[in-house]
Sequence to fold (393 residues):
Amino acid sequence: MNAEDYFLEIPNIILLLFYTICILSYTKQKKIVFFIFLGHILLIFLTNGLLFDPGYMSDQGEYLRSVQSLRDNFEFNYEGTPMDMPSEAIVTPLSALKTQLAAMIYYLVPLMCNSVFSVAGMNYVFYMMIFFFMYKKNLINQQGMYFFLFYPSLALYSAVGLRDTLILFFMFTSVYYLINNRYVPAMVLSSALFVLKVQNYLIFLISLLLWVVIDKGINPKKILLLILSVIFLVLLGDNISVDKVNFYRMAFAAENGLDPLDIDLITGNGDLLLKGFQGIGKFLLMPLPWEVRNALQFIQTLENIGILALLFYGMRAYRKLNVKDRVIRFLFAHVAIAFAVYGLVISNYGTAARYRYTYVTVFFIFFYHRLHQIRKQQLSQKGYDPSSVGIVI
Fold:
């Protein structure tokens, strides 16, 4: 990155500040919140070119070129292989479509597109849109607010030019509508995941099936959703076979500089289930403290310890509430399925952090929101006014 790249981003900085002021004024946030969001904007310019070279996350360039080409000529310019594809893979129509869909969405964001900073700024806009969605749907509480503002991986990946913030946006809104039994918007919004990250879409479908089982009652809409989900799972069946899982285990190992022949292959469906259960803990905690080799991995380990602390704190509060809640059971099932799937194939710590943070964000925002909802209901049933007593979990 050079001085000209920073200079060309001045109009975008002004626009980002304007959008931030508008949203925070509308949502009546304190001044300190504005300065925290200001820090998120600053982080855009502290990542690429300072903390690491833009080529470290090379698919940022693909999104930049696609958006620029779309805006200049209304056509796509797609080259190369995205980072999250196996290293020996060629550019397939689906992998190209990921970049094209992301570019079409970024095309609609009212910012100039001059450099990877610009695409990162577009991701910041979606970060703000998630915050605004949380406000409009009454999802903001003290714990959720702190988590959204200070979760390191969320701050990092919303400040670079990758598609992960888009994935988070569609995951977050899809899960919201699903747990509120609004199946049509849930399915429509989640359909973007089929292109942006088909693994996440598959996980969402499996979670949807679980929700139909967990949720009380049955009706024609649920039956239709069940049938459609089963059809999609059958169509995607090749992607969850033992051979396919072994292929991705070896491909990710090769991408991370390991010898694929050293990978312990899965021998059958029983072994697949066993390693899937083991993968839940592995994916949540990697890297473990004794596996740390550099400063970034040390930060990731501290982050994981913080996640565990929040999880234990939340579980302690949940036990005190003495209820069995279907939404919370769904959230645990959703994140467990995701961690089991990714724990099977991911061995690189950076990739794990990138794939993990979307699920961790969705889980904790909705988990703590649900704890507050339950506590409010209990206080109301006892004759207290929740707004005057306060909610402590």
